[in-house]
Every structure is written in C-alpha cells, then in structure tokens.
From TrEMBL:
Residues 243-334 form the CobW C-terminal domain. It comes from the Bacteria. SUPFAM superfamilies: Hypothetical protein YjiA, C-terminal domain (SSF90002), P-loop containing nucleoside triphosphate hydrolases (SSF52540). One of its GO terms (biological process) is cobalamin biosynthetic process. It catalyses: GTP + H2O = GDP + phosphate + H(+). Keywords: Chaperone, Hydrolase, Nucleotide-binding. It holds the Pfam family CobW_C. Zinc chaperone that directly transfers zinc cofactor to target proteins, thereby activating them. Zinc is transferred from the CXCC motif in the GTPase domain to the zinc binding site in target proteins in a process requiring GTP hydrolysis. This is Cobalamin biosynthesis protein CobW.
Length: 334
C-alpha cells in the first residue's frame, strides 16, 4: 500500500513558514493537500491568515489548527489523533503539510511517524527548514565564544535553531533579497558547514521555491533519525519554559502609523522575538494584518470584516521568559 507523504515545515519565529505554505497551496497543481498548522500561543493567527488567502484548499474546513503549544510536546495528545483522522477520511489527502510553531523541535514530530497506528500508512517525505536570513546573518541564533565559555551558558534560541537545521532535508535561506551578495554567501557557507551530507540549501524570496522539489524529497525521514541529532536526544522530554506569549486586545485603531511606532518601540525595549495579529482600523472595511520579526514590521489589509464579526484588534507577543507584560501593554496602548 502506498504511504501518504507528509512534509514537515520548520523554522524559527517569523522565518516565512506560513508564506511557504501559502505558496505550496497556490501551486498545488490539483494535488489535494491537507494542512496542519501549529502555533505557540493560544491565539491562532497563521491558520486565520491562510483561510483568508483566497487560494483553493485554504478554506477553514481544509485547515487543522493546533494552537496553545508546540506539536513536539503534544504528539500523543493532539498530533497522532489528528493524523489518524486525516488518514481515515473517505477521501484522504494526496499529501500532508505540517507547519510547526517557530519554537518547535522537529525531531520528536518526525519520530512520531513510527507510531504503530500510522507508520504503515504515512511517511515523512522531507523536513524543510525556513531560515530568516537577515536574522541569522546578524547573529540572532549564535552565541559568542565568550558566552559559550561561561559555566552557566544557555542560549535556547541557538538550540532551537540548531535542532531545526540538524533535522532538515532542505534549507530555504528566506528573505535572501534583504542581504547583499557577500553577506548571503557568508551565511550560506556557514550554514552548509553545519549540515549533514546531502542537505540542499536554496536562497528564496517570499519563501518561493519549486513545489515539485519541496514536496518530492522522498527522504523517509523517520527511517534515519540517528542522522538527525538533537540537543535533547538524551532527555525523556523537553519543555518550552524559556519562552512565553500573551495576547493584547485593543479597540479600533484611529492612527495605525502611531500604533506601528509604539509597537516598534515595545519590541526594541523588551527584545520581543515575534509580534503578529490583526488590527481594526477605524473607517476601514478590511482588517489589517501586522507582522513583526524583531523591529522589522509590515502591515497590509487581507480581507473585509465578516458580517457580525467583532471589530477588535488582537496582537500576539512572543519572547523569552520574563517579558514585562504590563510594561509592554502600556507601550502598545499608548
């Protein structure tokens, strides 16, 4: 019996994973793709964005969203029942695409495909890691030699990033257009030196890569777990206590430019890793999407407000443990 292929899309917060999923759905060429979207916070933004993108196969009924946690921690409770339900459909998908949260470790998820109830029915075609090239080139995920020499050295961003690279079959150096050629070449050389043999690296802009390549890696990743080392291999489990998230709810915004300035100020002052959500702008019939990675922030309108839908603004804030929620909310609210 032919196994249904599954592709795991990993990458740190804001790297471009959801953009990649949208690109795949827009170029599915008739292939029926089931989507499983996982987010770290309890407010689902990525699934909502995909459902509003207007691409066939991105309707709300076609997207399974698992929020408030990372799949690598909830494999038995959420992921496996979800996969089984997809496989048991009268008309199962041709391919399954799983977008993990930006803080998820991909190896525990790949390992789950050995579960007896699904191992004969589905295989991991490949793990695709999306890299935020400007952030990586700026050293966001790398400790200095001085930091590593400290007895209490701990860099959870570096650990997550390295785990995502080590498990990947294909690396997308996304946002490569934001780097000059020399910086991009240096980044590529540095990342290639950390990869196992055979892993390909592709520079991309807006996560655009050939779908036939992305969904045709034929890696059977669950069969060579030993070649995909993790910082957590010696542990029975792991947690994400190094990170936290919360949502900020606002009324309609009269001046979105002023809000953007306050958001950038809050991000810079509190080293917020990721901020995203939807804003209700007074006098505008459509909701505005806000996406920020570090202090790089973009805004755009994605769809009209639905009849009866509450015109409120919801923003998700993600950062290292110990965020000063009160101070951040005060800055955002002005």
């Amino acid at each position: 019996m032919r196994k249904i292929p599954a592709t795991v899309i990993t990458g740190f917060l804001g790297a471009g994973k959801t953009t990649l999923v949208r690109h795949l759905m827009a170029n599915a060429a008739g292939r029926r793709i089931a989507l499983i979207i996982n987010e770290f916070g309890d407010l689902g933004v990525d699934g909502d964005l995909l459902a509003a993108c207007g691409v066939a196969g991105c309707n709300e009924d076609d997207i399974i969203e698992l929020a408030n946690g990372c799949l690598c921690c909830t494999v038995a409770d959420e992921f496996l029942p979800t996969i089984q339900a997809l496989l048991d459909r009268a008309n199962p998908p041709d391919h399954i695409v799983i977008e993990t949260s930006g803080l998820a470790l991909p190896k525990p998820l790949v390992k789950a495909f050995h579960w007896p109830d699904i191992r004969s029915r589905v295989t991991v075609d490949g793990v695709v890691a999306v890299v935020d090239s400007p952030a990586a080139a700026a050293g966001r995920f790398q400790s200095t030699d001085e930091e590593r020499a400290r007895p209490d050295h701990d860099n959870p961003l570096e650990e997550v990033f390295e785990d995502q690279l080590a498990c990947a079959d294909l690396i997308l150096l996304n946002k490569s257009d934001l780097l000059d050629p020399a910086a991009l070449a240096d980044l590529r050389t540095g990342i290639e030196a950390r990869l196992r043999p055979g892993v390909k690296v592709l520079p991309t802009r807006h996560s655009a890569a050939e779908p036939l390549v992305l969904l045709g890696l034929d890696a059977a990743a669950e069969e060579d777990l030993a070649a995909r080392p993790s910082h957590h291999d010696a542990e029975d489990g792991h947690d994400h206590d190094d990170f936290e998230s919360f949502a900020v709810r606002l009324a309609e915004i009269i001046d979105p430019d002023a809000l953007e300035a306050r958001l950038v100020a809050a991000i810079a002052a509190h080293d917020i890793l990721r901020l995203k959500g939807f804003v209700a702008v007074a006098g505008k019939p459509a909701r505005q999407v806000v996406q920020a990675v570090g202090t790089r922030l973009e805004r755009y309108f994605d769809r009209p407000w639905k009849p009866g839908e509450a015109r409120v603004s919801n923003l998700v804030v993600i950062g290292r443990k110990g965020l000063d929620r009160a101070a951040i909310e005060a800055l955002v609210r002005g």
